[in-house]
Write a structure and sequence with these properties.
The chain is mainly alpha-helical and 136 residues long. The protein has six helices and three strands. The chain is 50% helix and 10% strand.
Length: 136
């Protein structure tokens, strides 16, 4: 998840990290999600194994939730399926296994909807990515 923080820093997006678990600290996770909209605009939730954290977050807030399945076991396939297979009505945007960078970029794209300066930075990032790709 460090890559999410690095990416958010690159775009000058303020962020906060919490260590929460849907199974080991469920009351804390639910309290955070329930009150998150008072402070935050998007939640990125990384979890491995029985990766229910993003789903718990999504069930307790109307904020966009981006799930990052982590490769803690079974090459992350268990976490991917637990994150992506949400029931109708409780969506979780899910990125690739260990895809914290893309989770941050998706959060930035969401935040850029109401922030033209951030949108311009994202557009510049994409142009730089294109140029780097063309250079090989």
């Amino acid at each position: 998840m460090e890559k999410a923080g690095t990416t958010l820093d690159q775009f000058d997006v303020e962020w906060d990290m919490r260590v929460l678990s849907a199974h080991k600290t469920p009351d804390d996770a639910i309290e955070f999600a329930t009150n998150a909209s008072d402070t935050y605009s998007v939640i990125i939730a990384g979890a491995g194994k029985a990766a229910h954290l993003a789903g718990v977050m999504a069930a307790k807030t109307t904020l966009p939730v981006i799930g990052v399945p982590l490769s803690a076991s079974l090459d992350g396939m268990d976490a991917l399926l637990a994150t992506v297979q949400m029931p109708t009505g409780i969506p979780v945007g899910t990125v690739a296994i260990d895809g914290a960078t893309n989770a941050a970029l998706l959060a930035i794209a969401i935040l850029a909807l109401g922030n033209p300066k951030l949108g311009a930075k994202l557009k510049e990032y994409r142009q730089d990515l294109r140029q780097a790709t063309l250079r090989g």
